[in-house]
């Protein structure tokens, strides 16, 4: 005799979840083991890594890191990121000043790289993470597959956010070879580096499995 969906405690047309089967997976090696507790962590029997049903305090930690990154993004744009001295002329440039100067000098490719890495990518990450956190916190079932892809996209572009720091380092190295010229990084690049790190940590703290927890009403909230 086949149990009905109501008798088995699962919804129709839905495969059982790992926690419903009493299983938990290791995020490091993928080993599936019997779960000893819903919220308490347990060590993976294969590699010893901690396993959780969901990442502890995922939304709170992701929000805190995202807000910290947003706060650091303000001085990253207001403070100069590099100091240049050429033929006795001294100047300090912010991110946007650097984009404009490179564009005017004909180096449109470097200007585009700095603009994308310093403005487009961080703003995209801020908006995307805010959308993911707000909809997940509200337990929304809206566009769950698309939101999962959005999270993977945020993870992907996060690794390219350091391009601006790399460009400043390369430009500084090139200018050093020229006589009567000098270039030094300034405090703005430090804040921008903190923005990159904090937004990457925010994305890593977010548990994308929470997106799908809204399908059922018996899932624990985080």
From TrEMBL:
<keyword id="KW-0812">Transmembrane</keyword>
<protein>
    <submittedName>
        <fullName>Paraquat-inducible protein A</fullName>
    </submittedName>
</protein>
<dbReference type="InterPro" id="IPR007498">
    <property type="entry name" value="PqiA-like"/>
</dbReference>
<dbReference type="InterPro" id="IPR051800">
    <property type="entry name" value="PqiA-PqiB_transport"/>
</dbReference>
<dbReference type="GO" id="GO:0005886">
    <property type="term" value="C:plasma membrane"/>
</dbReference>
<keyword id="KW-0472">Membrane</keyword>
<keyword id="KW-1133">Transmembrane helix</keyword>
<keyword id="KW-1003">Cell membrane</keyword>
<dbReference type="Pfam" id="PF04403">
    <property type="entry name" value="PqiA"/>
</dbReference>
<keyword id="KW-0997">Cell inner membrane</keyword>
């Amino acid at each position: 005799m086949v149990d009905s969906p109501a008798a088995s405690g699962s919804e129709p047309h839905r495969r059982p979840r790992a926690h419903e089967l009493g299983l938990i997976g290791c995020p490091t090696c993928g080993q599936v083991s019997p779960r000893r507790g819903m919220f308490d962590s347990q060590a993976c029997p294969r590699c010893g890594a901690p396993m959780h049903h969901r990442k502890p305090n995922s939304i709170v930690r992701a929000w805190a890191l995202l807000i910290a990154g947003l706060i650091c993004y303000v001085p990253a744009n207001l403070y100069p990121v590099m100091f240049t001295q050429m033929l006795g002329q001294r100047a300090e440039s912010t991110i946007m000043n650097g984009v404009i100067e490179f564009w005017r000098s004909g180096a449109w490719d470097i200007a585009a790289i700095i603009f994308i890495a310093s403005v487009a990518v961080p703003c995209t990450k801020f908006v995307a993470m805010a959308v993911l956190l707000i909809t997940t916190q509200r337990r929304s079932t809206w566009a769950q597959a698309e939101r999962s892809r959005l999270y993977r996209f945020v993870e992907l572009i996060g690794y390219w956010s350091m391009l601006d720091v790399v460009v400043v380092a390369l430009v500084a190295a090139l200018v050093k070879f020229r006589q009567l010229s000098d270039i030094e990084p300034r405090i703005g690049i430090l804040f921008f580096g903190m923005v990159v790190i904090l937004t990457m940590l925010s994305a890593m703290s977010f548990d994308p499995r929470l997106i799908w927890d809204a399908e059922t009403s018996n899932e624990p909230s985080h």
